[in-house]
């Protein structure tokens, strides 16, 4: 598709769509709990729909009246063998978390996905789930999808995660819940990652003890349905935060932004870079806030260490931000970017370089020189939603020529209304 160029400024107010991580988990917990779970403000992106369809295929009734999602939970024991292979689409989160549920169920199922998902390593979940007793077969030594899972009786695990991954942690928590009563699994994180599974488990009446990076999960748990309101996705808000900062004459108010502190690394980084950011309202129970952001003069910085898991999905758009800041920005310790929907170190560097940016990819990140004018180019998302949205925001800085985005439909995986929201904000100046 042809992207809009040469913005005169983005202005207005926006309610950010529901958080993808929390939306997935609300369906999963709703299914494995007993009773009816009502979910408000869920993200209806393709990834979350893959999760919903997987549970429908396992016999869970899920109603959607356009506003509320009602999940008629069956408990683990009520989930049935799906009649077909489960299509996970583009969604790594669906595949890894559902594998933890399937690992304890007494039937065989197959998970498959699109060309991007078929390249994503599942050994990170398959290995520990095998240690717990599941029988899992993937393709090649990395256990790429399709994955065949023969679930059954599981036993507790004592496991140190070799990667900082909320998906692996969550998969193991779902499996640990199905171990016998009296057994306790110990999961130790490499770095603290997003805490949505732990928090939602408590919301559904479950038991979990978290102390620093150590998590204890008792087996044989019985979960009870509850009501969930999904806050807005800070990973989607990130595109507007950056757009407002770098497109001259912009001011955007973002309502309903989720501010769980395991996700707010981007706010810390842009504040340190000099962003004009204001919290207008904050709801500490819902963990959401209304944030105003204006075009600001920014300086480059270093992003590394513990900060990385707190902003891993925002690094593509932060890379674009860095091309407009003063001086150099260095991103380190982010090798996980290589195993996202695309190799985001290579694809971010290639697509922004095609637009004239000065970015050096490194083994675990990138080095970006600032204050670089961008020009029109053709960018291919390669099926990666966040590359598509990054390119669409970058195009607003291009003053002439034709900016083409190939495979733009990838954006629907996490933000189906992205271009409508862009149109609204851009039309207000
Ligand atoms: C997610 C965890 C992260 C993130 C992904 C969503 C989740 O992946 O990149 O978009 O919902 O748990 P990793 O666990 O692989 O880091």
TrEMBL record:
The main location is cytoplasm
Give compartment(s).
Cytoplasm
Q: Which residues form the active site?
A: 313
Q: Where does 3-phosphoshikimate bind?
A: 20-21, 25, 165, 167, 313, 340
- What PROSITE patterns does the annotation carry? EPSP_SYNTHASE_1, EPSP_SYNTHASE_2
User: Which EC main class describes this enzyme?
Assistant: transferase
Q: Which InterPro entries match?
A: Enolpyruvate_Tfrase_dom (IPR001986), Enolpyruvate_Tfrase_sf (IPR036968), EPSP_synthase (IPR006264), EPSP_synthase_CS (IPR023193), RNA3'P_cycl/enolpyr_Trfase_a/b (IPR013792)
**One short Pfam family name for this protein?**
EPSP_synthase
Q: What are the entry keywords?
A: Amino-acid biosynthesis, Aromatic amino acid biosynthesis, Cytoplasm, Transferase
Instruction: Report the catalytic activity.
Output: 3-phosphoshikimate + phosphoenolpyruvate = 5-O-(1-carboxyvinyl)-3-phosphoshikimate + phosphate
Q: Which residues form the Enolpyruvate transferase domain?
A: 9-422
Q: Which Gene3D superfamilies match?
A: Enolpyruvate transferase domain (3.65.10.10)
Q: Name one GO biological process term.
A: aromatic amino acid family biosynthetic process
Which residues does the record give as phosphoenolpyruvate binding sites?
Answer: 20, 92, 120, 167, 344, 386
Quick one: a GO cellular component term? Answer: cytoplasm
Which pathway? Metabolic intermediate biosynthesis; chorismate biosynthesis; chorismate from D-erythrose 4-phosphate and phosphoenolpyruvate: step 6/7
Q: What is its EC number?
A: 2.5.1.19
**Subunit arrangement?**
Monomer.
The protein's job, in short, is: Catalyzes the transfer of the enolpyruvyl moiety of phosphoenolpyruvate (PEP) to the 5-hydroxyl of shikimate-3-phosphate (S3P) to produce enolpyruvyl shikimate-3-phosphate and inorganic phosphate.
Database matches in PANTHER family: AROM/DEHYDROQUINATE SYNTHASE, PENTAFUNCTIONAL AROM POLYPEPTIDE
Question: Its family?
Answer: Belongs to the EPSP synthase family.
In its UniProt entry, what is this protein called?
3-phosphoshikimate 1-carboxyvinyltransferase
Q: Can you name the source organism?
A: Lactococcus allomyrinae
Q: What taxonomic classification does the UniProt entry list for its organism?
A: Bacteria, Bacillati, Bacillota, Bacilli, Lactobacillales
């Amino acid at each position: 598709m042809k992207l809009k160029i040469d913005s005169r400024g983005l202005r207005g107010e926006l309610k950010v769509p529901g958080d993808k991580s929390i939306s997935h988990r609300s369906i999963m917990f709703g299914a494995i709990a007993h009773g009816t779970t009502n979910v408000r403000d869920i993200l209806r992106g393709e990834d979350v729909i893959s999760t919903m369809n997987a549970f429908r295929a396992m016999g869970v009734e899920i109603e959607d009246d356009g506003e509320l999602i009602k999940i008629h939970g069956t408990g683990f024991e009520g989930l049935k063998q799906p009649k077909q292979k489960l299509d996970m689409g583009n969604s790594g989160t669906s595949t890894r978390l559902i594998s933890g549920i399937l690992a304890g169920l007494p039937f065989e199922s197959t998970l498959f996905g699109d060309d991007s998902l078929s390249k994503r390593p599942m050994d990170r979940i398959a290995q520990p789930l095998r240690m717990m007793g599941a029988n899992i077969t993937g393709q090649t030594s990395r256990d790429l999808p399709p994955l065949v899972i023969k679930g059954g009786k599981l036993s507790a695990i004592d496991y140190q995660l070799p990667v900082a991954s909320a998906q692996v942690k969550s998969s193991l928590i779902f499996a640990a819940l199905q171990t016998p009563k009296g057994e306790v699994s110990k999961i130790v994180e490499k770095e603290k990652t997003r805490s949505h599974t732990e928090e939602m488990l408590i919301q559904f009446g479950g038991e979990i003890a978290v102390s620093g990076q150590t998590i204890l999960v008792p087996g044989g748990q019985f979960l009870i349905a509850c009501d969930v309101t999904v806050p807005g996705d800070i990973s989607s808000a990130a595109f507007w935060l950056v757009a407002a900062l770098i497109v001259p004459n912009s001011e955007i108010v973002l309502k309903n932004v989720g501010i769980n502190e395991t996700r707010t690394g981007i706010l810390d980084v842009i504040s340190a870079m000099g962003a004009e950011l204001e919290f207008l309202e904050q709801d500490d129970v819902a963990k959401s806030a209304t944030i105003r952001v204006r075009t600001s003069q920014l300086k480059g910085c270093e992003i590394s260490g513990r900060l990385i898991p707190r902003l891993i999905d925002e690094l593509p758009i932060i890379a674009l931000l860095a091309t407009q800041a003063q001086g150099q920005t260095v991103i380190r310790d982010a090798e996980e970017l290589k195993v996202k929907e695309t190799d985001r170190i290579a694809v971010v560097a290639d697509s922004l370089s095609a637009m004239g940016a000065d970015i050096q990819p490194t083994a675990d990140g990138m080095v970006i020189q600032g204050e670089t004018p961008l020009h029109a180019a053709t960018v291919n998302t390669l099926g990666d939603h966040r590359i598509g949205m990054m390119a669409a925001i970058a195009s607003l800085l291009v003053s002439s020529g034709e900016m083409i985005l190939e495979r733009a439909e990838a954006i629907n995986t996490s933000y189906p209304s992205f271009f409508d929201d862009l149109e609204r904000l851009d039309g207000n100046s």
